[in-house]
Amino acid sequence: MDYSTLSDEALLVLIAHQRDNALHELYSRYHRLVFSLALNVVGEPAAAEEITLDVFTRVWTRADSYQPDRAQVSTWLTRIARNHAIDTLRRRQARIESRTVGWAEAALEALPAAADPAETAHLAMQQHRVQAAVGQLPVDQKEVLALAYFKGYTHSQIAEALDLPLGTVKTRIRSALQKLRQLLADEQ
Amino acid sequence: MTTHQDIENLIPAYALNCLDEDEALLLAEHLAACPACRDEMLAYQRTVNQLALAAPPTEPSPQLQQRLARRIRPANAATSRQAARSWWQTVLAGFKQSAPVWGAVAVVLLIGLGLANVWPVTPTSQPMRVVSLAPTQAAPTASGVMVVSSDGEYGAVIVENLPHLPSDQQYQLWLIDDGQRTSGAIFSVDEHGYRAVQVESPRYLIDYDGFGITIEPAGGSPGPTGPKVLGGEF
Fold this sequence. Notes:
The structure holds two protein chains of two kinds. Chain A is mainly α. Chain A folds into two domains: 1-94, Rna Polymerase Sigma Factor, Chain: A, CATH 1.10.1740; 106-188, Winged helix-like DNA-binding domain superfamily/Winged helix DNA-binding domain (Arc Repressor Mutant, subunit A, Orthogonal Bundle). Chain A is 68% helix and 0% strand. Chain A has eight helices and no strands. Chain A starts with 7 loop residues before the first helix and ends in a 5-residue tail after the last helix. Chain B is of the alpha+beta class. Chain B folds into two domains: 4-54, no CATH class; 80-233, no CATH class. Chain B contains seven helices and eight strands; from the N terminus they run αααααααββββββββ. In chain B, strand 1 and strand 2 form a beta hairpin. The radius of gyration of chain B is 27 Å and the shape is elongated. In chain B, 30% of the residues are buried.
């Protein structure tokens, strides 16, 4: 069977039936996305690789829990990855700090080889669109947004890390998400 | 007094899960009763869901996919594991019959020469890994080996000259990885202090750094509590 021609949802059905080649196809499509997210949270490649393994292992054991009417497969994967990565960060009881976390520069990168062109192109375009939207935010909004999203910090923790008034943090986060919602409305 | 607008202003941060606890509770109670705000929250959640796509792209190591394959294989290899287990059981039965005659060193030499030439089992051309287990002060005359299959999936521990324990104690094998210890076997020894036992592991044995055997209450412990008697590393 040529798994590369199957949709993400079809792959999950096969994974739920213990087809390991289907898992490897899904891995080839999304391992980079999951790993990049995990690395931006925990900051260590080895830990990010463990998180990536855990995410795809969970897909293997819980593929039947995916609900197509609630989110895209990529969203489901990144939600699992983000939650796991933030839990890992919190377990390490990392000191609250304004550790550098980054946003990708909006640029169309070379598509990975040996991947389904249609799926890969769609993901690449989505990534470019989101990265371009984030790029339009003021630097101070990107900074607080990164701490909230990638580090799981609360308003208070961000205020402490950046030595800002709490009200300023709340305003910047709200403004950032309102702007992003407008810019990304067509994708939703 | 908190207005509806004040509560609405909390929705973006709620979708991002960065509200402080008191505000999160306030909004959660409001959402239960306000469909319009629930719709707003879902819309912001869809926005937040896309932020993962903006993480700087990085490639993990190429070996990661192989590690994933090894991790999921145990759940997918029931049939092959059953066949392999019968092979190991045959090997161990051979050890059990002959072991009082052999020292642990002789066992290692046997393995080095190739088990297929000695035991009446289906021969394999794949080399196995052997980890020598060194004794501690708690059992200075003991000896042992861990024998691990070539792909690292199966293994057995063979010990000799371990002290015979009272009925309320047993030996327990620990699989060690980065300081974490997982139980691999619980066993007692015969009158020669000898035992050969198959190792049960949630992961491939080659994923561990080393092995240790301690004295524990009969039936084993969640973690090592007693003195270590044998230990070794890959």
